[in-house]
Amino acid sequence: MRKLPRLFLALCLTYAPFAFAETVLKRGNGTEPETLDIHQSSGVSEANIQRDMFEGLVTEDAFGKLQPGVAEKWEISADGKRYTFHLRKDSQWSDGTALTADDFVYAYRRALAPETASDYAFILWPIAGAEAFNKGEQKDPATIGVKALDPQTLEINLKAPTSYFLGMLMHPMAFPIPKQAVEKAGKDWIKPDNIRCNGAYCLSEWTPQAHVKLVKNPHYRRAAEVKIDSVYYIPTEDQNSELKRYRAGEIDITYDVPSDQIKTVAQDYAAEFHSTPYIGTYYYALNLENPAFKENPKVRRALSLALDRDILTEKITQAGEIPAWGWVPPVDNYTQQNMEEKSLDKAARTKLAQELYAESGYGTDKQLELEILYNTSDNNKKLAIAVAAMWKQTLGVKTNLRNEEWKVYLSSRKQKQFQVVRSSWIGDYNDAHTFLSLFKSDVGEMNTSGYKSPEFDRLMAEAETQTDAKKRQEAMEQAERILLADTPIIPIYYNTTQHLVSPKITGWENNVMDVHPTQYLGLVP
């Protein structure tokens, strides 16, 4: 046998490691995750990670569009109430064990169990029996309309035809979870040593306030097409620090961009800056249990009308956001609704705000004093300062600001420990229902203001059971008009997203859902 030259061997040994070097992606991810348990989390930062770790019956492509996931195909009954999903026979968990229809049954039952206390359980309420079981009105989980016909066939029965149902299944609440791991480890099932994933990646380590590391799942159905070996999700609540880390090459994709630097960043990093419309609304929720707001819609309207949304978006946020005079942002098959006062000029709105403020019992002799709660973020802080200044100038309201780290903020919000709280709702699917359903009186903590309106509830119930698309749309539009008149919230703007994406990244596609699963991305040397 011919011997290889020593120089050739030396070169092979020298360069071999580079040929097999791990491809690592570093993503800014906003807040520190509350938890990675899909039934206990509620934020975008958690969902970003969960979409890499798990895959539902359907999933999204690089453009955010729906495509088959664990289910390779499905049929819908003629009445639109029964969905039969056929799972891929090669579906596996990250330990190589088979993923079956029973894993979905188990996941949905756990999500809806009252003891799980999931904020997002209402997402699954379109399923027959789901709402009654979640509310404790029905004790038998078998009454939920989800059953495994065989290991590869899942049947879901709905209480009424639901046009957005498939889109809803892209939400993490509809992902499967590994029954054996959960039953063995309990609440610790989500820890690296216990977890099993069925997505493109799985949890490797979680160092709080430093990073969440995911590694490629070799048992994922598309593993051969996944280009990045590991991804670090880095908490970046301070947008200025995140920008510095991006400039230093420590982060490949930013979660956001500081609002006061957007113009500069857009010029300096023109090819790397991405600003895209986002299916979401940034708003302030008013605690209707607070004496200042309870039974006092006039003061709520006064506070809303005192805000100059044009200045807030043009001078403060500066990222192309659209001033919001309604709650539901632009979505398919829906006509945007606006507050009646949108048609007034600034002077007329200011005059009306002052009149309503006086009629509500406040004025020179008795000024309202408020506190705005927001989660730690430079952009949230700048907006809160501007809002407080407008309330002071127009109405005389004294406003204090209180910022809290994400987990503490979520706890305060859930327990109604606020007067005014900054919030943002990102649509779970492209339909007005995902926005309006938040204000039904029975959805629990996700109804941040504690809003209750029998007429609003009636219209939403009509929309949820209406088979005529036009009548369904009309019912929701009427419901939104009632919501806007009652003013439990103050919409401020319709979201846009801003990211800096390294030129080394391939496969990035802007989309209104702002979902960018790592499995579709690549890194060039």
TrEMBL record:
Domain of life, per lineage: Bacteria
Signal peptide as annotated in the record: 1-21
Any Gene Ontology CC annotation: ATP-binding cassette (ABC) transporter complex
Keyword Transport belongs to the record: yes
Pfam families, sorted: SBP_bac_5
InterPro entries listed in its UniProt record: Peptide/Ni-bd (IPR030678), SBP_5 (IPR039424), SBP_5_dom (IPR000914)
Keyword vocabulary terms for this entry: Signal, Transport
UniProt subcellular location: Cell envelope
Biological-process GO terms, alphabetical: peptide transport
Major subcellular site: other
GO molecular function annotations of the record: peptide transmembrane transporter activity
Every Solute-binding protein family domain range: 65-444
Family membership: Belongs to the bacterial solute-binding protein 5 family.
Full protein name: Peptide ABC transporter substrate-binding protein
Lineage: Bacteria, Pseudomonadati, Pseudomonadota, Gammaproteobacteria, Thiotrichales
